[in-house]
Amino acid sequence: MTAINSLIAVIGTLIVALLVSVWLPGIERKFVQARIQQRVGPPISSAGIMAPIKFFFKETIKPHSPMPKLYNALPIISFLSVVSILLIIMPQLYVFAALTSIIAVVGLLKIEEVIYMFMGSLSKSVMSLKMPFPDVVKGAKHPDTQRSFLEELSSLRAFRLIAFGSFPLYIALFVPVAMSKSIYLSGIVSYQHIHGPVLFTLAGILGAIVFFIGYMILLNEYPFAILKTKADVIEGPLMEYAAKYRAYVYVTRGFLMFVLASLFTTLFLGIPPNLFSWNILVTIAVALIFPILMAVMSAFSPIFTYKQFYPTVAGVSIIGILAIIFTFL
């Protein structure tokens, strides 16, 4: 009976997460950014509900790619990696100790990140048309010039994000680890049930700030949106995805918002997502607060160039390291 209850709790939590996550992009765009920028903005259901439904019914186009099946499968792999993160932070799965650790969370987050690099490197088209640059029509050929595609530039930016930009989030994840002296999620949660939430300490406050900056970077939101540039129509490596595969992209973004908020409540408040506990309301509240704060920062922020992005990430990472040091004082 206990196993059945656990299964119901896991499935129910996943359903709640999906129902909440589809509204988060709309809340971010409609209720915050649009109001700050004094414009009407899209309907609240547009980004997370209507857009995926629209793309699911569009005609699927075979991409120009050396590995088209893998290219189309990447958004699905990204979604499954994010779902896996939510699964392992649920208390019902803490019996699988080796899989429910901070190391597993970092590994799955890295999979989600590296997908962007694969997206860029496997795309060989521009708006679904095979069109190498520079053009090779008569009179337009440039000798000894290497041809490239816009998405290849996106993959280079994705590599920079993986190699450097995600440092703040991963450093912040280890603040609760250092304080609880456990890499296992069950140990981190148990420590906070005894000693109180990590968030209510100096190290926890600094770690939460660093986590939130990392949250924005991982979601590629302004001012840290180095994956999105004017050159490739603000979409970066996602530009060439169409039909149902683009729908997965929209669903994954909203779901990632909820999962990162759940990860925060688990690590910094000791409250893992659990349908059978009223604490699930805390997880939902944080999932709503984070996009609102992100939208406020994005609305008032410039677009960072690399000269601004690197020093900011370095400074935030140093704050995260200080937070870890404070846990030993």
Automatic annotation (TrEMBL):
Record keywords, A-Z: Membrane, Oxidoreductase, Transmembrane, Transmembrane helix
Localization of this protein: Membrane
EC number(s) per entry: 1.6.5.11
Top-level taxon of the source organism: Archaea
Membrane topology recorded in Swiss-Prot or TrEMBL: Multi-pass membrane protein
InterPro entries: ComplexI_Subunit1, NADH_UbQ_OxRdtase_su1/FPO
Gene Ontology MF terms: oxidoreductase activity
Pfam families: NADHdh
Transmembrane segment boundaries: 6-27, 70-90, 158-178, 198-218, 247-269, 275-297, 309-328
Broad class of the protein's primary localization: membrane
Name used for this protein in its record: NADH-quinone oxidoreductase subunit H
PANTHER family xrefs: FORMATE HYDROGENLYASE SUBUNIT 4, FORMATE HYDROGENLYASE SUBUNIT 4-RELATED
Signal peptide: none
One GO term describing the cellular component: plasma membrane
